[in-house]
Structure formats: C-alpha cells, structure tokens
DNA sequence: AAATAATAGTTTATATATTAACTATACACA
DNA sequence: TGTGTATAGTTAATATATAAACTATTATTT
C-alpha cells in the first residue's frame, strides 16, 4: 500500500513529515514489487532470498541460526518464521533440526540445494541492483542512507 | 521483512546501492509497525486509514471512487481492494454501490460513521507524525523526499 | 527439589499482498 | 448489428505479516 497520489495531489493536507513518510512507503513498495519480480524468475521470493542470504553469511561454520535469531535479524514476528521455514523446508532449501543441548531451539541451515541456488542467484542480484542504481552517484546514496539512519534513530528503534 | 543486521554486519557484502535498498526497506517496515500500533487504538489499520483519507479528500462532492481508481491510487492490485472494501463495508465505514451508467463499476463512499471516525483520527495522526518528526528539520526532510523521488524516477515508475 | 519465570516454537484468527482464471459489462469496428 | 476486445470486479491459491493463546523445555528462586 503506497498512496501514490497523495505525494502529488495533497500538498495542502500533507505536512512535510507526512509527505516524507508516504514517500518512503511508496519507494519501499515499488522496490518490493521489483525484487519479487526478479526473484520469481528463480522460484524464490525476496523474503526467501533474504533468509538464504542470512544463513549463507551469518551462520558461521555451518552452525545455522535458530528461528528466534532469524526473527530478530529480519525484524519480523516469531510466528512468521514458522511458516517461512515450513515452505522453504518443503522446497528443500533449508533443514530444521533440533538443537542438541537445548531442545527448545530449531537450528535452520541451508541444504546443498539451497546453497547452490543462493550462489547462483546472488551475482545476478548484485548485478541487477548495480544496474538499477548506477545512475545515482555514490555520494547521494550515502546521504540517503545516512538520513534514513537518522530518521530511524528519531523513531527510537 | 527488513534484515536489520545486514545494515551493520555485512559491509563486505553489501554494495552502497544494496545498502540503500535495505535501509529503505527497514525504515518503511518500522514505520508500518508504528502506524499499525497507532491506528489499532481506533480499530483501524494503516491501510484502512489511508483508504478513508483518499475517500475523504479525493472523492469530490461525495462522488466516491471506483475500486479501480483506489487500486491505482494505492498502487496495489485490484484483487486486494475487493477484500479491503469487504472488511470496511462490514465495519460500516464505507458503502459499495453500483454505478448508475456503467454497471461494471462499484462506487465506494465513506459512511457518516466512516467520516466521523476519520475526522476524529486525523488530527491525532497529524499530531503524532509531527511529534515523531519534529527533531528533524524541514530542510533535511525535503532533501530525503527529493532524493527518494529521484530514486523512484531511476526505477522508472 | 518444587514452584515459578522465561524462552522457543506452533497454532489460530486476521489483514494485507500477489497472480491467474473467471464473470459481467461496455466498447469498437468491420 | 454482431463479434471480438477491453475493462471492472470477484474468486482461489499462495506468501507474508501481526497478536494472542498454547505447548514444551529450560532457568531461576526460594
């Protein structure tokens, strides 16, 4: 949900802050659609790719991540990880095994199929991102992320 | 889905462009949670509030909007509007009536209950937005929205 | 050690989002 | 005028998101 028209049509209604909020929503919404189109070509969603990315880079020495860790890292509710892992387990992209010492935890790891798919998709993704972003110079990007970081801190997260 | 950790931990992996994308995702995700918390106090979701806002400001002279218009304005799929209007019709916030001349169209209007709720919530919302955003000066906000606008154009939307 | 807390994960109900296939209606043009 | 096409909305299947209530396990505290 993005409310495109608000950005242009409601100058008398929208405060600058409100405008900025809608603008961020709108941009994120468009990017999500683009990402889903892209990852769909590989039978993935953007969320599934991002979990694979996490598992690939953050679970040191094949140690895997617990669902709670994934939930924290992706900033989504625990309940959400259950169904996400269900789907990816069914697609044989990840495994879910009980932790040896603490049986409350499930340890999620990439399968070799998952790892192969990730290493196949990642370079295309990075290339795509670079292509989309290349017209913007690096300084401007730094400024955007820096300011968003500031907005985030203002929102006390 | 926001991948908080990527922003800090994967400098070697994330290109500046990739970083910027994740940053926008992350910020939008946090804002959506905040908005939902806020609107939840009034029995609304952020999406429902935004539809009410559209109907309140954009449907001139009580003319209402068709579902296709709403779909275009909110940048979401047509199918989504069906269920959104279903829920809001059930809550007696909007009505759905057939267009007199072209029976393909449904015309969606705020009920008096919907209008009353909207005018009750809006000032609180604007106050809240102002409060959250006040630490940032207007110039910075202008720059953020201006740059996001540029990103959007680069994405050819 | 037993009672209580906290933590991890699941389930259920709900809201939002997509695409694809469908119906109904209106338009267009040959 | 009739047929093909375009448009509006719905439905179904699927993916993601939340909160709340639940089970199982571990930690703490007396």
What form of chain A results from the Cα inertia axes? globular
Low-confidence stretches of chain A: 8-12
Alpha plus pi helix count of chain A: 7
User: What Rg of chain A is obtained from the alpha carbons, in whole angstroms?
Assistant: 19 Å
Percentage beta strand of chain A:
5-15%
CATH-defined topology of the largest domain in chain A: Arc Repressor Mutant, subunit A
Reading side by side through the largest sheet of chain A, how are the strands ordered?
A: 1-3-2
Looking at CATH, the homologous superfamily of the largest domain in chain A is Winged helix-like DNA-binding domain superfamily/Winged helix DNA-binding domain
Known CATH architecture of the largest domain in chain A: Orthogonal Bundle
Integer average pLDDT of chain A: 83
When the domains of chain A are counted, the total is 2
Oligomer, anyone? Answer: homodimer
Please bin the fraction of helical residues of chain A: 55-70%
Amino-to-carboxy terminus distance of chain A: 23 Å
Describe it:
The structure is a homodimer of 157-residue chains. The longest helix of chain A is centred in the first third of the chain and has 25 residues. A 3-stranded antiparallel beta sheet of chain A has the order 1-3-2. Chain A has 157 residues and is mostly helical. The relative contact order of chain A is 0.10. Chain A starts with a helix and ends with a helix. In chain A, helix 3 packs across helix 6 and helix 4 crosses helix 5. The first copy, chain A, is globular, with a radius of gyration of 19 Å. Chain A has 7 helices and 3 strands, in the order H-H-H-E-H-H-E-E-H-H. About 3% of the residues of chain A have low confidence. Chain A binds a DNA duplex (30 and 30 nucleotides) through helix 2, helix 4 and helix 5.
């Amino acid at each position: 949900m993005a409310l495109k028209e608000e950005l242009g049509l409601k100058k008398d209604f929208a405060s600058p802050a409100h405008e900025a909020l809608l603008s961020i929503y709108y941009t994120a919404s468009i990017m999500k659609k683009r990402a889903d189109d892209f990852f769909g070509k590989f039978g993935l969603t953007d969320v599934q790719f991002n979990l694979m990315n996490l598992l690939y880079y953050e679970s040191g020495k094949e140690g895997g991540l617990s669902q709670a860790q994934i939930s924290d890292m992706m900033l989504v509710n625990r309940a959400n990880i259950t169904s996400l892992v269900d789907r990816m387990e069914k697609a044989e992209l990840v495994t879910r095994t009980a932790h040896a010492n603490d049986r409350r935890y499930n340890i999620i790891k990439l399968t070799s199929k998952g790892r192969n798919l990730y290493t196949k998709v990642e370079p295309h993704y990075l290339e795509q991102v670079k292509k989309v972003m290349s017209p913007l110079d690096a300084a401007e990007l730094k400024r955007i992320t820096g300011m968003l970081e500031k907005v985030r801190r203002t929102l006390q997260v």
